[in-house]
Amino acid sequence: MLKKLNLGIKLNLLLVFIFIGLVLTGGLVLSQLLKGYAEKVVTDQALILIETMGSVREYTNNQVNPELADRLENEDRFLPQTVPAYSAREVFENLRKRDKYGDFFYKEATLNPTNLRDKADSFETKIVESFRQQPELTETTGFRSLPSGRIFYVARPLAISEKSCLRCHSTPEAAPASQIASYGDDHGFGWKLNEIVGAKIVSVPAFKIFNSAKQLQRLVIGIISVFFLVGILLINGFLKVSVTTPLKQMAQLAKEVSTGNMAGEFDHDSEDEIGILAKSLNRMKVSLEMAMNMLNSETN
User: Fold this and answer.
1) Cβ neighbours for 194, distance < 8 A, ≥ 6 positions apart
2) What beta strand segments (E) does the chain contain?
3) Same domain for 271 and 292?
4) Based on the structure, what is the number of domains in the chain?
5) Residues in CB range of 269: below 8 A, 6 or more apart
6) d(CA 159, CA 198)
């Protein structure tokens, strides 16, 4: 079948196959590169945020809590500002009010929290349990699918590292009266020193970054496709002017010579292979014409 196709069609078929191979291979490589870049971006964002929340916790524990601790026994209402987890969560909620960070989340997911808004869901419970079962594990990352889209999370264990934490979480009798009045005495107790009770989890909207990466991939492939198609057109134009048209003209000349018409001649100024072929054809025509003249002279 290929033998019946002309040179231009064969070349175009070859270029099409090259183009398809280039798009598939380049698309796969580009996809992996952009995926790796997107994962690095979301990981960096999550790590910065979780480190920031850790700093907020330390500030609250070292600077705010000592100033307000005595008031916990005298106030009718519990002062949540003394709790590092509360401060970190409130700071992050203020951050989420900005449009850019509206889809970011921070939660200190706890198995038995004082404030029920920190109660770990089923997914977060598995993370906490993995930390409890593997005390040497200091961090875990991964992806989670939510109705709003795919998110990337970074989680670190939340352990009771200071005895001061047990003041509010050991037994209801030891807890400040204002805490019992605000949150009751059925949850948030029974914690032990060095026990992992929860996980600090920062969630970053990965779907936006991955969608941007996919758009960039489509854009790059589109640009490559346009340049390749332009290249095909230029190659076809060059092939037509420099190869196929001269070959057709030489074929027509050879056909005329074969029928005895020696008037035609093919001029090609180029010194390339087509030019050499054209000169050879013209020499052959001259030699054939001389041979025919000699034959006619001998006949006469």
Assistant:
1) 159, 160, 161
2) 105-110, 140-146, 149-159, 196-205
3) yes
4) 2
5) 275
6) 7
This prediction's pTM: 0.65
The helix/strand/coil state of 16 is: helix
Amino acid identity for residue 222 in this structure? G
Cα–Cα distance for residue pair 59/43, rounded to 1 Å: 24
pLDDT in tens, 93-120: 999 899 888 889 999 999 999 888 899 9
Shared-domain flag, residues 223 and 152: no
Q: Which amino acid is at 129?
A: E
Coil/strand/helix, residue 65:
helix
Q: Is the model's pLDDT at 283 over the cut of 70? A: yes
In angstroms, what CA-CA distances link 164 with 53, 56, 174? 20, 17, 11
In a domain, 13, yes or no: no
Angstrom CA distances, 218 to 23, 28, 92, 256, 294, stand at: 11, 12, 35, 53, 70
